[in-house]
Write a structure and sequence with these properties.
Layout: H1 3-30, H2 37-43, E1 58-61, E2 65-70, H3 79-101, E3 112-123, E4 128-137, E5 144-153, E6 158-160, H4 162-165, H5 169-194, H6 198-215, E7 226-230, E8 236-243, E9 256-261, H7 262-265
Parallel strand pairs: 2-3
Antiparallel strand pairs: 1-2, 3-4, 4-5, 5-6, 7-8, 8-9
Length: about 280
């Protein structure tokens, strides 16, 4: 056998080996037994962050509606929080516009309105508090108050809810009881200040008590609107629960607030969030 023949045979063997490896690799990939470097690299790509909301103040005036929405400077620093604020405003805006479309012809109660003012009430590396206070008018004697609070945790890039803070049902029994006690005490004080006659007083207490009990069920949904009261070090020294009109009273009663001290609450706070509260000894 000549040198040329031996060389040709070696070349054929080499080509066959390469083809076998390529076919084996293709089969393994189809069966999920191996992955190409490109696929592995793709699996390691970071999860996309929250897209930045395009916050822009709005002032829209027509013969049918007036819409005013304002955002605070600096909110865009927290894209997740900004997106939630924008979502809230968009939904409120759409509800007013839908009401305009369904409005009876020749209604004589003026243009429908939406007013929302967002404010940053606290900013720190560990916690941001955003508030919105406004109203929507879509006919009738008066508008509907729009009140919301967001407690945002930048290190976790998420909102802290009442249900997060107090995950145990027994905690809500205590919180609801404390809130009711304060609301009942305020009711008694108002009746005393107004010098209501005994007969009328009994009727007023009975009616108001039913509203208070119905709006303070031991459930986080009845206490979803809250904001922290902070000390000089940015630690929570109390929680202020905000009760919108109608929840525990009439429209004339307005928004109500009840503060519960950290010392009363911290035993029920989920362990992951206790560092947010001031030391209670």
């Amino acid at each position: 056998m000549t040198s040329l023949s031996r060389l040709s045979r070696r070349a054929l063997i080499l080509v066959a080996s390469v083809l076998a490896c390529l076919l084996l690799g293709a089969c393994q990939d189809r069966d999920g037994a191996s992955r190409t470097p490109a696929a592995t690299a793709a699996s390691r790509q970071p999860i996309p962050s929250t897209p930045r909301a395009q916050l822009k103040d709005e002032l829209e005036t027509t013969s049918d509606h007036i819409i005013g929405i304002s955002y605070p400077t600096g909110l865009a620093r927290y894209p997740g929080l900004a997106a939630e604020a924008q979502r809230y405003a968009t939904q409120a805006r759409q509800q007013v516009l839908d009401a305009v479309k369904q409005r009876p012809p020749k209604a004589g109660d003026g243009p429908y309105e939406l007013s929302l003012e967002f404010k940053l009430k606290h900013e720190s590396p560990t916690m941001v508090v955003l508030a919105v206070d406004g109203s929507a008018y879509t006919g009738g004697a008066h508008g509907t108050p729009l009140i919301q609070r967001w407690v945002w945790l930048p290190p976790r890039n998420r909102r802290l809810t009442a249900a997060d803070l107090f995950p145990q049902p027994s905690s809500w029994e205590r919180i609801a009881g404390d809130v009711r006690t304060q609301l009942h005490a305020e009711l008694e004080q108002r009746l005393d200040a107004d010098k209501v006659a005994p007969g009328e007083r009994a009727a007023a207490i009975k009616s108001a008590s039913a509203l208070i009990e119905g709006g303070t069920e031991p459930d986080p949904s009845d206490f979803a609107v809250f904001e922290p009261v902070l000390d000089g070090d940015g630690k929570i020294m109390a929680l202020r629960f905000i009760v919108p009109p109608y929840q525990v009273g009439t429209y004339a009663d307005g928004m109500r607030t009840v503060e519960l001290p950290a010392a009363r609450l911290v035993q029920d706070v989920a362990p992951a969030y206790r560092p947010l509260f001031e030391a209670t000894g």
